[in-house]
Each structure stands twice: as structure tokens, then as C-alpha cells.
Amino acid sequence: MSSFDYKAFYYDQNPMHIERAQKVADSIKLSCNIDKNHVIADFGCGTGLLGLQFAPLVRQVDMIDNSPKMLQVLDDKIKKLDLKNVNTVFLDLDSCSNLPLSKYDIIMTLMTFHHIKDIKKAIFQLSQMLKKDGKLVICDLDEEDGSYHSDGNTIHNGINQEILKNYAIYSKLNFITSKIPYIIKKEIDGNNKSYPVFMHIYGK
Questions:
Q1: Is the pTM of this model over 0.85?
Q2: Of the four listed, 36, 94, 136, 154, which is most buried by Cβ atoms within 10 Å?
Q3: Domains of the chain with bracketed CATH
Q4: How much is the mean pLDDT over the chain?
Q5: Residue 88 pLDDT exceeds 70
């Protein structure tokens, strides 16, 4: 069982996770023109805290993750809420050979990229999944000193925003805007630390 499969069973018990997803969702709604006919995706959706907030606003939401247990928890939520326009999709970019090309008006992702080894490749793959004029919304941990994941359960210590922009340019995406929709507060070794979560919006 992966660490994310294990976390699935108690992930929603952390109030910060819920608050963060709410603040980020609010920011996305203000920054993107959400349309009732849109088909959108939440990539690295986990238990669905972000993507489910868009279900009443769009035609379809695909919740994409590579953790079966996260998707299992999410499936239970979808059934309880009786959401007919929300689907769970198991997808591992490292092994996938049949991406859903040109399917989505918006792909959003929260706190996922700093767990991905090849960020440049992931952005390219996600760009291929966007419709013409689609938007990629990347929300992630700003580059930090490694103290956020003190257990070492990550690949990158946050994301360097300038490098991220360069990767997006390589994938022929246009940078639209950025902001800081949320700041995580944690106590590390008795000291209060702040970890900004940034949002980048790119257009195809």
C-alpha cells in the first residue's frame, strides 16, 4: 500500500486540507470563466476535496488519481451525494499509453506536482488532454527548505515557479496569471512557519 493509499482513510480529518481546498476552489472560480457546458478534470484529486466543489457548475468532472484507495474513498462520497456528473478515473502518467486527448476545458491540480518526478513530462501530457483554448491550473507548494515534508515523503521540496513556467512554455502553454490563494501554517521544531501555496493558470 502506497503512502497515499494509506492516507486516504483519514485525509479528510485534517481541517487544513478542507480549508485549503475551499480557498483554492474559490480562487479558481474567480480566475476562470466556469461554464455549465465545461468538461473539467481534477488531476491528483485524492479524496475529491477540490474537484467536487465544481460539480454543480459544469457538465462533467473527471476525478483523476493513481491511488486506488483515494479513488475508493471518493467513489463512496460520489454515491452518497448522488452526483451523476462526476467520474473517478485511475490514471498513472508514468505508464499510461492512451491519454484522453483534447477532452478538457479546464484541468486543475492541487498539491500534486511536488510528488511527480518528471514535472516537464507531466505538464506536456496534461497539455495534450486540454481542448483548444483550454486552461491548466496548477496549485502547489512554493519552493521551500525541505521542512514541510519532514518525513521525506516527497520528491521535490515544493516547486520553483520560474522553472514551472519554462516547462509550460516548452509545452506551448501561455502563462496567464498567478496568485497565492492559501498559506499553510505549520509548527516546525517549536517555530511557526509559513508555506505559500501558489496558483498558476496557463492557456493552450
A1: yes
A2: 136
A3: 3-203 (3.40.50.150)
A4: 95
A5: yes
